[in-house]
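Predict the holo structure. Ligand: magnesium ion.
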Amino acid sequence: MSILVGIGGCGRNTAEKMLARLPSEFDLYTFDQIIDIPRGISVLQLFQNLKGVSEPKMLCAEQAAYDYLLGMDSPLYIVVGFGRSTGTNVSLTLAKEAHARGIPVYCFVMTPFAFEGRENEIAKAALIRLGLYATAILTFSNDLLMDVLGSSAKLGAAFSTQCVWVTRALLAIHAYQERGEAALLTEHLGPNRRIEMGVVFTTTPSSACAFLNAAHK
Ligand SMILES: Nc1nc2c(ncn2[C@@H]2O[C@H](COP(=O)(O)OP(=O)(O)OP(=O)(O)O)[C@@H](O)[C@H]2O)c(=O)[nH]1
Ligand SMILES: [Mg+2]
């Protein structure tokens, strides 16, 4: 079994759109701050989303939610938008805990638009910290996305396109994990274990070829 967890607003939106395209061995969870109306406070809650079921099922909250995700002892695939509060902080905590327990953790991180300003600095710093814990980090720049699609593209359509992109990257990474070749993946990615927009930037063509061949094996 593998766990896909969408964290924060962006992670939740993106992961939910990915569900229909995921192989059956994936369980989808979303983890976000939800307003508890009767108590008038915001609570970090974990939901499970099942294929074909429209309403996600609330499982648990706060520390119990971390324990639930880590207790399954399955590889974690985290989808998140970096730059604000919930997604950034919760992903870092979850990845740190997973790393401490020897659980592989693959992070698919949307990075902010340049116009968002301060969010960019927060995202950059958080990516450096995430590098301490993640098995691999795949970044998807919202700015580059709009460059590719053109400024007339509607934001909703752009984010849906990005979901397809993220899903394809996730399936390539998942293929490595399933074959027990996570170490080979790390070797191909180099010391910062980072892939931008699902593409390996490398100065050694042979390692790029090896990566692509292995992903499509
Ligand atoms: N690609 C994509 N990016 C998004 C989406 N929603 C937000 N973002 C980006 O993700 C960043 C984080 O936004 P959210 O996920 O809404 O923030 P959060 O983690 O829930 O943080 P708080 O609500 O402030 O606690 C933003 O700065 C945006 O750049 C989305 O649906 N798709
Ligand atoms: Mg939010």
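The radius of gyration is 17 Å. The domain at 2-215 is CATH 3.40.50.1440 (Rossmann fold).
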